[in-house]
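Figure S7 source data.
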Amino acid sequence: MTDKIFTKEEWLERLVGVKGDYRVFVPVKDGDFHMFAPIDNGKKPDFNYQNTRLSPKGLVYPQSERMFEYSLDKQDEDAFILKEAPKDYAPQAVVGIRPCDAQAFQIVKINFDNKEYQDPWWVQRFESSVLIGLGCNEPCDTCFCTSVGGGPFSEKGLDALLIDLGDAFLFRVISDKGQAFLDKMGGGAEAGQEQVEKARRLAQDAEGRMTSHVPTDKLKDRVVLDLFNAPFWEEVAFACINCGTCTYLCPTCWCFDIQDETYGKQGDRLRNWDSCMYPLFTLHGSGHNPRDKKFQRVRQRFMHKLKYYVDKYGDGVQCSGCGRCVRYCPVNIDIRKVCARMNAYEG
Ligand code: SF4
Ligand code: SF4
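Tokens for the predicted iron/sulfur cluster complex:
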């Protein structure tokens, strides 16, 4: 497919110009961190960044989503009937998403869009999204995407890939959605051989600069009960404060809870991200809690990502190697070390 070259000035102008066709989300600096925000929120897009603190998963799977609404007013004809809350599936473009976060959507898709079950809201929002990636010229030392099937310039799950050549961006179309975005945006010049070669070299250099390599090759051969009963879980979990940071920042965590909120005689049924690191997550109505100990919750997080998922889907691990949980865990619990232990554990 086509490679186009945009000067950085033209790129920003074209992005602003495509606002009528897509809701455009771009990385912006917010205090000490970056986040995705609509292009017209008054903050300048900043593509010179490593990654956002919060992953962009919330653009497809909101942290809190109104599923249904209802009335508790007996006078209303439709009192006590759940009605689907209005949803917005306008086309949106996530521009500058890192390849690990695009791959994460493919991992999450296995849960929300499979043969047995399609989550209507996730599917529609995902289908109305176009993902324009940004290759990582300078991967962080906590990233390990190359160990889990990705790479700093991986095209997996992307509709187009941007490559920062310094004075310009190379725009590479990957899917029909990416081509449609380019057609709407217009502009750009055909990339020359020299620019394509520079992009190739940047990708090769970035792979060479990856410092974290995590062994995952034996996970599928390990016996699930051996790993479950392994002696290291208390030690792994010792420092954890059950803050939930790892799961909330993770682009591949998908668990949610459903809650009702009422205001006078009107009510909403909401689904909110939840975290297996919280004791209440598994509390039964009877009062019984099958994971009332911290080590059980920490074990669950790692076993789900690195063993149950592996065994159930036979397609990699439930982690895209973005490194967020490594960077932001306040007590330095490191999935790379836990994965290496699990991979090596022979029972
Ligand atoms: S971020 Fe660290 S301390 Fe917080 S719940 Fe996760 S593992 Fe525990
Ligand atoms: S488990 Fe950690 S490294 Fe893997 S995708 Fe989630 S936040 Fe990123």
